[in-house]
Amino acid sequence: MGKLYVVSIGPGGLEYMTIKALDVIKKSDVIVGYTKYIELIGDLIKDKIVFSTGMHGEIERCKKALELSKDNTVSIISTGDAGIYGMAGLILELKKDEDVEIIPGVTASSSAASILGAPLMHDNCNISLSDLMTPYEIIKKRVEFAAKGDFVISLYNPRSKGRPNYLMECINIIKNYRKGDTPAAVVKNALRNEQKYKIFTLDTFDDFGVDMLSIVIIGNSLSFVKNGEFITPRGYNINRKG
Ligand code: SAH
């Protein structure tokens, strides 16, 4: 009897993977994943059987992982957290009687937040701007309601060649509900070698080469920048005496 681990590998560098993730990868015979993510953990899996597929091969990849897990210990790899725009949901939707365990990890918004300061200190939400499986009308509605609700907003999949304008359109929706000096930051390749970031405001936001390796975080009505660090206050009264 085999087992399938759905393994979150964190943002990139191996040092941001959990000990549990490392442990299950080490004990797996077969590793399944998107070619680019397999490269991120290359050193760990030299002696394993590897099954990798390209960008849109998710269903094929999950079916293969489930099938192989009947007789082998298998890890299917997701970056960040497998339960956030990762492979965990699809695996559970396709699963019949296979033994599956999900290993959590550090998602892109947490990684980016640690670089920017502490922007996610209060209520926050993730919205993906990818319209491959969600109509753009619904995406815009969610952006609008998140802005109305004063959530800190992390935009995943913010910009691709096929939809160059969605990001600025969504920033403009948010501007209808937030002041122009609200911090809005881009982090590209968070906690990877090629990391780059910049903190703008909603008024000065420009695209900074935002792409599919980037995440955008927009503050709430109380967020501010101090000494170059993006902070959303939790609400402590730090001026109180005694
Ligand atoms: N499961 C992943 C998200 C996959 S969706 C997670 O939990 O992080 C892919 C999107 O995640 C990318 O388009 C980008 O917006 C974001 N992302 C993933 N890793 C990132 C990183 N290291 N730096 C910046 N953004 C990242």
Automatic annotation (TrEMBL):
Pathway: Cofactor biosynthesis; adenosylcobalamin biosynthesis. Keywords: Cobalamin biosynthesis, Methyltransferase, S-adenosyl-L-methionine, Transferase. One of its GO terms (biological process) is methylation. InterPro entries: 4pyrrol_Mease, 4pyrrol_Methylase_sf, 4pyrrole_Mease_sub1, 4pyrrole_Mease_sub2, Cbl_synth_CobJ/CibH_dom, Precorrin_MeTrfase. Pfam families: TP_methylase. Its EC number is 2.1.1.131. It comes from the Bacteria. It is an enzyme of class 2 (transferase). Residues 3-204 form the Tetrapyrrole methylase domain. One of its GO terms (molecular function) is precorrin-3B C17-methyltransferase activity. NCBIfam families: cobJ_cbiH (TIGR01466). PANTHER family: COBALT-FACTOR III C(17)-METHYLTRANSFERASE-RELATED. This is Precorrin-3B C(17)-methyltransferase. It comes from Clostridium fermenticellae.
